[in-house]
Amino acid sequence: MKTIAVGALALCLSVLPVMGCTSTVPDSPSVHVSMTEEVVPLQVARIDIQNVYKAHEQSPYVDHLMSPPPVAVIGEMLDRRLRAAGSERVLRVIIEDASVVSEKLPVTEGFWGYFSKEPEERFKGSAKVRFELADLHAPDIIIGHAEVSTNRNKSVMEGATLAERDRALEDLARDLSRDLASGLDGVVRETFSASTAARTGVTATPEW
């Protein structure tokens, strides 16, 4: 289950000129996420994409060894999808988690292990993005908020090559980004549509 906590946020579903978008996610080689993407226009004057996640850079975490790391893949997706299409307010889009942990799995040893091939390592990915709506002239006062989060696992088999391991990690980064993109579509297009923009304090807990 993934939980989306929804605050007040006004959106415009018609495509308007982009008025501002800034990004502070790290530069990394691009990983193309193969999926149908649509620009999501928001009724705000500026969108600030921020990364507050700090890689742990030690075992069992491995996201800092990935190229590109999940935080960069997620940041690129947010930058592609979100567009400012209003004349007031600022939306802060904050990447809070983009971690991947490596977990060794038990495998059959001895004689029977010689005849079996089992998953040997599991990569556990987590990602979370928080949205904060504020007035341009009072950016410290949050007038609306939302969160989208996801968890994904990917396993590799015994004897996997380095290339196969890297491919599993790349797939995991894509999966995390896809899940967050789906969350954007759900929150933005359904909960934060123009018809519900006036409602505040709404909490949505979808099953997916």
In summary, what is this structure?
With 208 residues, the chain is an alpha/beta fold. The protein has helices spanning 70-81, 110-114, 162-191; strands at residues 4-5, 21-23, 40-42, 46-51, 82-84, 90-104, 119-135, 138-157, 203-204.
What does the model show?
By secondary structure, the chain is of the alpha/beta class. It has a single domain, classed as Double Stranded RNA Binding Domain (2-Layer Sandwich), CATH 3.30.160. It is built from three helices and nine strands, in the order ββββαββαββαβ. The chain has helices at residues 70-81, 110-114, 162-191; strands at 4-5, 21-23, 40-42, 46-51, 82-84, 90-104, 119-135, 138-157, 203-204. It has a five-stranded mixed sheet, covered by helices on one side. It has a two-stranded antiparallel sheet with strand order 1-9. Strand 7 and strand 8 (138-157) form a beta hairpin. Helix 1 (70-81) runs parallel beside helix 3 (162-191). Residues 1-35 and 191-208 have low confidence and may be disordered.
In total, the number of domains comes to 1
The radius of gyration is 19 Å
Number of helices: 3
In percent, how much strand structure appears in the residues?
Answer: 25-35%
CATH architecture: 2-Layer Sandwich
Order of helices and strands: EEEEHEEHEEHE
Q: What is the overall pLDDT average? A: 76
Classified by CATH, the class is: Alpha Beta
Biggest sheet layout: 5 strands, mixed
Structural class: alpha/beta
End-to-end Cα distance: 6 Å
Give the topology.
Blueprint lengths: L3 E2 L15 E3 L16 E3 L3 E6 L18 H12 E3 L5 E15 L5 H5 L4 E17 L2 E20 L4 H30 L11 E2 L4
Parallel strand pairs: 2-4, 3-5, 4-6
Antiparallel strand pairs: 1-9, 6-7, 7-8
Helix pairs in contact: 1-3
